[in-house]
Specification:
This protein has 475 residues and is an alpha/beta fold. 40% of the residues lie in helices and 14% in strands.
């Protein structure tokens, strides 16, 4: 039982929820969650009963009860009959999961918390083509632990086109990049093992490392881009034998690692006996001409770079198709491990992606056109309506990494939600809960959507549009 407690008056004074927030219970739960994550409301502190807090806030008891229930589901509250409720943190690997992905489709908020684009216009034709050949595969068992041969060859061919000699025997098809990451970490990392990660980075990579019980070794990314010497120093000092990096249009900063840094990083991994997991989920999403680099594995001479790819950003996340490029021996071990999870992926979706690979340049041109227009619209809207916020326009990828004028990302996200926009605050992408001065704003939605999102963010609490007024000043 918690020995410390906070009174209803004290908690109500800490909570900041706009009076017009809808639904109010969700905003209330998010406000309490932010207090816990920021350390303003310590863990294992008893909070007041629902009725008392409701009276202090001037809302119904049902509203507070529903907010408490939501916090319990997320792992931020624990309760015991007769003992009350006290603050907590979710189990390792669960931090941020609810806010990042599990949001109702019909909540009416503009989804700027994820950088997932709609499906490519080429999807329908690819589905039709797959349907014409699908029946042939029904003659077999349907289990292909390494993936359907035609797709493995298409992926290998694309690596060869990018300048990296690759055979289909070096490819394993997975149920998305996250599945690939889980398999690799399960095989390569154990409890207590140091694993190198950039900070900020892809949030589910952090979750996956924590789930293994491994020790996170964060390496900061300065605003002017990576300093590869910092990464190499951290690798040497921590004795990390595994590292996760996003060299192509880094999520969330958008940085593109230069070839010379790629060569230096792989050489350091070779010296220190480390394996690098290179997440290439954004590699095909160059927007500006000349924004390209050789695959990280192109600098590898002894199979210590393992590539992770995905169909999600270029074509569509609903396909749930990803892949791993590694030495055949590594893939055989992964196939055995996979047997404990899902045995093999669905055949039809793999055939769809194989057909999409045949028209990959059309898809890349489509994304360049659409993402380029949305990137311009987002940057223009931010400069006009929120000029105190700073960002560097990336040459590709899917988002802007925006620096706020104060360390208030959580509060900004709360206020934006009350105005109909779901945002991704910086701490989601940090290893240690820092980055409160940043937001990730994706440009994977149409231009009208990102313009409207910025308009809502820049709107004052009364609902009046206030151009050029930073949102945080209106809180």
């Amino acid at each position: 039982m918690a020995e410390r407690y906070v009174s209803e008056t004290q908690l109500a004074r800490l909570i900041r929820v706009p009076p017009d927030a809808r639904p109010y219970y969700r905003a209330l739960a998010e406000a309490v969650r932010t207090l816990i994550l920021d350390g303003r409301l310590p863990v294992r502190v008893r909070i007041p009963p629902e009725r008392r807090l409701a009276d202090a806030l001037g809302v119904s008891r049902t509203t507070v009860t529903t907010a408490y229930d939501r916090l319990r589901e997320q792992g931020y509250l624990r309760s015991r009959q007769g003992a009350g409720s006290w603050t907590a943190l979710p189990d390792a690997g669960a931090l941020g999961t609810d806010s990042l992905w599990i949001a109702p489709d019909d909540d009416g908020l503009l989804p700027l918390h994820v950088a997932a684009p709609p499906a490519t216009a080429l999807l329908g034709e690819a589905v039709e083509e797959a349907g014409r050949t699908y029946h042939r595969y029904a003659l077999g068992m349907g289990y292909e632990p390494l993936g359907v041969a035609v797709l493995r060859e298409a992926i290998a061919r694309r690596y060869r086109e990018r300048g990296l000699p690759t055979r289909s025997e070096q490819i394993m098809v997975t149920a998305g990049a996250q599945h690939a990451m889980h398999l690799l970490l399960t095989m390569l990392a154990g409890p207590g093992d140091p694993v190198l990660l950039e900070s900020p980075t892809y949030p589910h990579a952090i979750d996956a490392v924590r789930l293994r019980g491994a020790r996170l070794v964060p390496v900061g990314i300065p605003e002017d881009g990576r300093h590869v010497d910092l990464t190499i120093s951290a690798m040497r000092q921590s004795a990390a034998r595994l590292g996760y990096v996003i060299p192509d249009f880094h999520n969330p900063t958008g940085h593109l690692m230069p070839d010379e840094d790629r060569a230096a990083l792989v050489a350091a991994a070779r010296r220190h006996g480390a394996t690098l997991l290179a997440d290439e989920s954004w590699a095909e999403l160059a927007i500006d001409s000349g924004a390209a680099a050789a695959p990280l594995a192109a600098f590898d001479t002894d199979d210590r770079v393992v590539c992770i790819g995905s169909a999600a950003k270029l074509w569509w996340g609903g396909l749930r198709v990803g892949w791993i490029r590694a030495a055949p021996g590594v893939l055989r071990r992964l196939a055995v491990l996979r047997g404990t999870v899902d045995i093999a992926g669905p055949v039809f979706e793999q055939l769809v992606v194989a057909h999409l690979f045949d028209r990959i340049e059309e898809a890349r041109a489509e994304r360049r056109r659409v993402f380029g227009a949305s990137r311009s619209a987002l940057a223009e809207a931010l400069r006009e309506d929120l000029p105190a916020w700073r960002f560097t326009v990336p040459r590709g990828g899917g988002s802007l990494w925006v620096r706020l004028d104060s360390p208030t990302a959580g509060a900004v996200a709360e206020a934006a939600a009350s105005r109909g926009v779901r945002l991704a605050p910086g701490p989601w992408f940090g290893v240690d809960g820092t980055l409160e001065r940043y937001l990730r704003l994706p440009f994977t939605q149409p231009p009208d959507v990102v313009r409207e999102a910025v308009r809502r963010i820049a709107t004052g609490p009364s609902g009046t549009y206030r151009p050029r007024e930073p949102l945080i000043h209106a809180l």
